Amino acid sequence: MRGLVYHGPRDVRCDSLPDPTPSDSRGAVLRVERASICGSDLHLYHGALASPPGFTIGHEFVGEVVEVGSDVRRFQVGDRVLASGVIGCGECSQCLRGRVVRCERAPAQVYGVSPLLPGGQAEAVAVPAADRWLLAIPDGVSVEQAVLLTDILPTGFFGAKNADLHPGDDVAILGMGPVGIMALLSARLYGPARIFAIDRVPERLALAQELGAIPVDAGSDVAAFLADATSGRGPDAVIEAVGADETVQLAIQLVRVGGSVSVVGVNVNMAFPFPMGLAFMKNLTFRIGLVPVPELWEALVPLLQSGQLAPERVFSHHLPLSRGAEAYELFDSRVDGVLKVLLDPAA
Predict the structure, then answer these.
(1) Of 266, 288, 310, at which residue does a domain stop?
(2) pLDDT digits (tens, 9 = 90+) for 257-284
(3) How many domains does the structure of the chain reveal?
């Protein structure tokens, strides 16, 4: 098969690889129909995760089951499925509830960030504990929507859910990349009075405005703008969808006294200088964490089927897997209006 292989920082290649096999009797193999590049894949691409080279990338993929282990019960060859980008053991009480991040036997794993769990930006991928971490693509859910259900739509929804939103609130979202757009769409479900969308890229701000948010150029004095817009109080909640130290700090600075900060941007800085004094004096609620993808499917699937959520417009570019290196360069550059890239492994 072919797959996008990490060879080091900013070095992704479409290589020929051995075909995958089920990891054990509970595993399955998918022929990948579509995969996409996530913003968190860029952390690997930039070398921030210190992973050794030589494995396939990607945790957002859907496809057709082509092989199952002897103990797989819920799926059979020919089923079209989507996979949770985050997995656990699949057997403990927390995994059985979809709370993958709380797995009682081992830390949660993400596809395609190390050789331990090869990713799905490939023609095929092995899925452990298939009965637990796969979901049959529901009726009324498109392929593009199914890809988004594997990670970034649940992540954006998780960000909005953790922000303690109420009707009439003012909400600020830092970062209008794909996850920020998912957070915006999810925040609208709670009936906020205003959503302030903060970014530097004009095309992303334009899309946020089209989706009903108030665009705020991150190059301006954001704190002054929001203070003026909220009569000095600050927004009731801030959702951080970037993951940089600076934007997490800014979120804490911007939120009103007694407000909530919800961080879903990936930040792996173990020495992050948390402003404890400011957080203490503001009496703020601060939440951060890896999204428990399967736990949120029950809420998100009906919202997609009913048309309450239409997140698929986030895909700005469609490219064949063979042009994967170009796709990463494009996504990293933020030029040509790129927001999210969908890959076709058959091309």
Answers:
(1) 288
(2) 999 999 999 998 899 999 999 999 999 9
(3) 2
